[in-house]
């Protein structure tokens, strides 16, 4: 190999062979080297002409022919390696640019600047709104979702039939996923969609309708309802669910009974199934198949599906198989619309890495607590207890301990905290000179789901500070009322009597939320935050979706349970078969 560096290939070796000096007359012979090329040359000098020396010359000539070939091979290998490196880099660059080109991004502002507060160590949590749109804006979505037979392919964003606030804690030790039922009634703020130009001056309506005025409008509406700062959003349509489930090789789910939802077309036998493509979409869309047949039951089955998908992501092999990673990345970027803060592959990978740090046992899935809308039996409104859940997320509080279990400190108040707001009556007294203050606050409590036995009156004396007095054993109920009104714990005190009494002081001259409360106060315990919220963690692999026992579906015009429909629909192929 040393020869290759001495000069141009094919010349240096020949000149050395020709230039081997012979001993001059009178000089003593040099001792023979013991091996290598030097030994061969020495042997050639001493060999008789035509014998070994001739063979030495032949061998030397043979070496002369071989050396250029070796150099050519090495040169060719170097060129080939360069081509491979360049090609690989090109593919990597193409892949990166291809994925970036897949992403559709939209700028948003949640109405509060979308900036989370850092903790004592300078770390910030992440709050992400995940939306599933019911839009039929392509032929594929029309085929998957139906409903286009008369309208054809539709335009616009559709409705946000799935809404989940995903909170990743500042220290990345825990996460909360809170579903907001699509049938929730709330105040939609004034919005304008910069793409379509469609605008609204604000209205009271179903929360999922805000998406019609753009993704930013949906984000603002969720922020206005919950008080939670929303940093980012991710939106997925029907075909996106299909692509993602296929990319991970299917998602394993369990149902506790035979189910046939004649509306979403989901048909599964009791037990565990791996769902891909259309079957996965049928499962996450099914609202008549599970629970009470409403959107509340659907949120629970969606949590089971997402928990299973997260476990699949984290399982060995899923993210180490290059083909699987490519298919997943390609499917994800094609399926998603995101805010500009997540508008590159690098940022999406960063978000995935943050979520991957959270153990599944510390990922809590929960549904916003609701109460019946007094004006419409088919709609719901946030229950008072929901404010405690909102505050838990807004204040970056974990719903699990480091072991993944509920906080033991919360156990003592769990029973009292579980009392529904509808069973809590409050006496509201006006301690100001402003007429109607007690009535305003009491009406707000009743509309928020508290007992209609809530009463009003005038305080015996003027009050400068608003207080909430509670009887023995009623602290948890008082905390529920405090969360609803935005009162900090410093306003609460235990009295000698019974019942709950709010005395409105001059420090609260107007409105139904205590002034200065930008968000609800942090709950005294986090277990109260998940009261009646159907909470579960992502590590619960053996959980099954509970099939509705009500007559929520119809087959051949006859109302029946999803299990009855399964047994009668013998000509309908199972979704997972």
The averaged pLDDT comes out at 77
Total helical segments: 15
Name of the CATH class of the largest domain: Alpha Beta
Radius of gyration based on Cα positions:
36 Å
Please give the largest β-sheet.
8 strands, mixed
What count of domains describes the coordinates? 3
Estimate the strand proportion: 15-25%
Distance between the termini: 64 Å
Describe, in plain words, how this protein is organized in 3D.
- The chain is an alpha/beta fold and 577 residues long.
- It contains 15 helices and 25 strands.
- It has helices at 12-18, 36-46, 52-102, 139-145, 215-226, 238-247, 277-285, 295-314, 322-335, 345-356, 385-394, 411-417, 437-447, 475-485, 562-568, and strands at residues 104-106, 126-133, 160-168, 175-179, 185-188, 191-192, 199-200, 203-206, 232-236, 251-255, 259-260, 267-268, 271-275, 336-339, 363-367, 370-373, 376-382, 427-430, 455-458, 467-470, 492-494, 500-504, 536-537, 553-555, 558-560.
- Strands 1-14-9-2-3-4-15-23 form an eight-stranded mixed sheet, sandwiched between helices.
- The relative contact order is 0.11.
């Amino acid at each position: 190999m040393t020869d290759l560096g001495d000069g141009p290939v094919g010349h240096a070796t020949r000149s050395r062979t020709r230039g081997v000096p012979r001993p001059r007359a009178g000089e003593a012979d040099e001792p023979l080297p013991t091996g290598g090329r030097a030994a061969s040359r020495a042997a050639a000098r001493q060999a008789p002409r035509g014998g070994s020396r001739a063979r030495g010359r032949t061998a030397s000539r043979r070496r002369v022919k071989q050396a250029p070939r070796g150099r050519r091979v090495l040169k060719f290998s170097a060129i080939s390696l360069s081509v491979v490196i360049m090609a690989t880099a090109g593919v990597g660059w193409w892949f990166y640019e291809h994925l970036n080109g897949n992403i559709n991004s939209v700028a948003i502002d949640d109405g509060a600047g979308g900036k989370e507060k850092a903790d004592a160590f300078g770390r910030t949590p992440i709050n992400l709104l995940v939306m599933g749109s019911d839009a039929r804006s392509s032929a594929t979505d029309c085929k998957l979702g139906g409903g286009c037979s008369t309208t054809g392919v539709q335009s616009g964003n559709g409705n946000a039939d799935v809404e989940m606030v995903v909170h990743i804690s500042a220290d990345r030790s825990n996460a909360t996923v809170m579903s907001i039922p699509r049938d929730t009634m709330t105040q939609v703020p004034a919005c304008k969609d910069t793409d379509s130009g469609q605008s609204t001056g604000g209205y009271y309506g179903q929360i999922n309708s805000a998406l019609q005025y753009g993704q930013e409008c949906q984000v603002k509406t969720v922020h206005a309802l919950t008080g939670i700062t929303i940093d980012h959003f991710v939106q997925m349509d029907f075909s996106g669910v299909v692509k993602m489930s296929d990319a991970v090789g299917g998602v394993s789910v369990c149902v506790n009974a035979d189910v046939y939802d004649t509306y979403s077309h989901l048909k599964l036998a009791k037990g565990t199934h791996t769902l891909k493509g259309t079957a996965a979409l049928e499962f996450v869309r099914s609202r008549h198949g599970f629970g009470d047949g409403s959107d509340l039951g659907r949120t629970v089955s969606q949590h089971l599906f997402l928990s299973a998908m997260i476990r699949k992501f984290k399982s060995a092999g899923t993210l180490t198989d290059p083909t699987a990673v490519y298919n997943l990345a390609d499917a994800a970027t094609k399926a998603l619309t995101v805010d500009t803060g997540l508008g590159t592959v690098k940022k999406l990978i960063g978000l995935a890495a943050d979520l991957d740090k959270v153990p599944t046992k510390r990922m809590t899935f929960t549904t916003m607590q609701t109460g019946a809308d007094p004006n419409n039996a088919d709609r719901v409104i946030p229950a008072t207890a929901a404010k405690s859940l909102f505050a838990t997320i807004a204040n970056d509080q974990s719903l699990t301990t480091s072991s993944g279990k509920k906080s033991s400190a919360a156990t003592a108040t769990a029973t009292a905290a579980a009392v529904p707001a509808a069973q809590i009556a409050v006496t509201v007294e006006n301690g100001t000179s402003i007429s109607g203050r007690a009535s305003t606050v009491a009406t707000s409590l009743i509309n928020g789901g508290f007992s209609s036995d809530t009463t009003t009156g005038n305080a015996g004396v003027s009050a400068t500070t608003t207080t909430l007095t509670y009887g023995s054993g009623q602290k948890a109920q008082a905390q529920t009322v405090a969360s609803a009104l935005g009162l900090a714990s410093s306003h609460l005190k235990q009295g000698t009597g019974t019942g709950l009494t709010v005395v409105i002081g001059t420090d609260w001259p107007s409105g139904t939320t205590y002034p200065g409360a930008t968000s609800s106060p942090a709950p005294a315990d986090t277990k109260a935050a998940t009261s009646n919220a159907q909470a579960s963690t992502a590590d619960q692999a053996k959980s099954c979706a509970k099939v509705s026992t009500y007559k929520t579906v119809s087959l051949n015009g006859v109302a029946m349970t999803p299990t009855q429909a399964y047994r009668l629909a013998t000509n309908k192929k199972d979704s997972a078969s």
